Each structure stands twice: as structure tokens, then as C-alpha cells.
Model the fold of this input.
Amino acid sequence: MLIDWFTVGAQALNFLILVWLMKRFLYKPILHAIDEREKRIALALADADAKKGEALKERDEFRHRNRAFDEQRAALLSQAMIDAKAERQRLIEEARKAADASGTKRQEALTRDAHNLNQSIIRRTQQEVFAIARKALTDLASASLEERLRGVFTRRLREMDGVAKERLAEALKTSSSPALLRSAFELPAEQRAALQAALNETFSAQIDVRFETAPEVISGIELTTNGQKVAWSIADYLASLEKAVAELVMEQGKSEPSHEIEAEPKSVVNLR
Done:
């Protein structure tokens, strides 16, 4: 069998031309497309990595901001609680002060009302006591209350103990002004003369006396000179009665059973 070298050469040339054509128009575009795709994939991966890094950074920033927000919220809540507690304490204190002021005013009003009631009772009692005493003395002894008081005061002067009498006598002698004799009522001339005579007789000297009317000397007579005083009145009778009445008023204010008022009169000579 003979080999047709021309045909073999032609076929080889055709094969080489085919390979060149395939390489030129087929493999290169495919390889180029593959390279381009790999580049695009690499860029996409790089972009994805960049975006992932940004996402992680944003996540960290978000966590940091969230943590700062939580801390700020906790601080604000704590401050709000402190302010609320302080405001509550202030309101309680204001309410307590208002209640104390109201209670004080109420107590003052009650005290004032009790004092006014007590004074009214005392004045009424004085009027009744004086009226009864005057009537009783007039009916029983045909003498006025003023005359009886003058007689009692004169007797007290004469019955003074030695020390008290000496001190009063010394005060009368050393005083640069007249002795002051005060009474709750206007003394008639004859009673003034009787008192003057009793003083002169008691201290064996001429005593200079100035007479004066003083309503606060409750139905009594008092002699003062140079810091010394001798007095007799029914003020102590009324003081005992006043104390009993005050106790009764307090007991009635507390809604407690009332006790019987017992005021035992007593006459007292005060010497200062």
C-alpha cells in the first residue's frame, strides 16, 4: 500500500489550520471570559468582605451606642427616683408643717376659748360671791361688805407677828413717799379715818397714807410701802374656786365625768 504524502500533508495542514482557528476564535474568548468571570468573582468577594467589615463595624458601633443608651437611661432613671424621693419628702415635710401649724392654731384657739370661758366664769362667780356676801352681811349683821373687809384688815394689822411688824414698820419709816393703801372700792371718809387710826396705833407713829382705788384688788385691801406689802382679800377664796373650775373645764373638754367642785375658802395675809 502506497502512502499519499500529499494527502497526508494536506490533512496535517488542515489540522494545523483548524487548531489555529479554534485557538484563535474559540479557546481565547473562552479563556478570556473565564478570566473576566474570575475577576468579577474576586471583586465580588472583595466587596463582600468590605461590606462584611462595615457591617461588623456598624454592629460594634450599634452595640456601643446601645450600651451607652442603657447607661444613660439607668442614670436618668436613678436621678428621677432621687428627685421623686426628695420631692416626696418635701411634700411630706410641708404637709407635716401645715398640720403642725393647723394643730397649733387649733390648740391656741381652744386655749383662748377655755381662757375666755374661765374668765367669764370667774367674773360671774365674783359678781355672785360679792352679791351674796353683801346681802348676807347686811341681813345678818346690818353691815356692808366693805365695812367687814376694813374690820378684817384692821384686825390683821394688829395680829401681825413681831418680825413682819418690825419689817413693815422699818419700811414705813424709811420710805420717802406716802404708803399706798389700795382697795377694790372707794372708801368712805369714816373708813379712811378708821384705817388711818389703826395704822397710827399699830406702829405708834403718824403714818402718811395715800388712798387709791384698784379694781384688781378683788374685794380686799392692801398696804404697800418701800417693797413691803400687807394685804387681805378674798382673792385666795376665788383662786381656789378658779382652780376647781379650770379642772372641771378640762375634764369636760376631755369628755370625762365631772367631779364635784370643792373650794374651801381661806383668808391669808401676804407680807412681802
About this structure: The chain has two domains: 12-107, 144-271. The chain has five helices and five strands. The helical segments are 5-141, 145-158, 162-174, 189-203, 235-253.
